[in-house]
Amino acid sequence: MSRNPNTDPPQPADQPELPPVAPHDPIKPDPETPQELPLPPDAEPSPPAPVREPDPTPPPAGDPQPSEPTRIM
């Protein structure tokens, strides 16, 4: 009676051969020549956003100015 070779348990010497790793393989990059990751297109605003400087003098202490005049009905 013959045995089916597909049912035999794998042996340590029966390890599958892995294909060679190319130098540009993204999974294993070359450590001697590190490459910078590209930035996303929206990483830097174009044109740069304007920066509004704060007023040099602080507002006086007290009640804040009303946003609109008081309505008399």
Could you characterize the architecture of this molecule?
With 73 residues, the protein is largely without helices or strands. Helices cover 0% and strands 0% of the residues. It has no helix or strand. The radius of gyration is 35 Å and the shape is elongated. The mean pLDDT is 71.
Please specify the SSE layout and strand pairing.
Layout: no helix or strand
Task: Describe this structure in a few short sentences.
By secondary structure, this protein is largely without helices or strands. The protein is 0% helix and 0% strand.
Q: Notable features of this structure?
A:
73 residues, little secondary structure, 0% helix, elongated
User: What is the number of helical segments per DSSP (H or I, 4+ residues)?
Assistant: 0
- Give the averaged pLDDT, no decimals: 71
Radius of gyration, in angstroms, nearest whole number:
35 Å
Distance between the termini: 108 Å
The beta-strand count equals: 0
Q: Assembly type of the shown chains?
A: single chain
Portion of residues in beta strands equals under 5%
Low-confidence stretches: none
- What would you call the shape? elongated
Largest sheet: none
Query: What is the helix fraction of residues, given as a range?
Result: under 10%
Structural class: little secondary structure
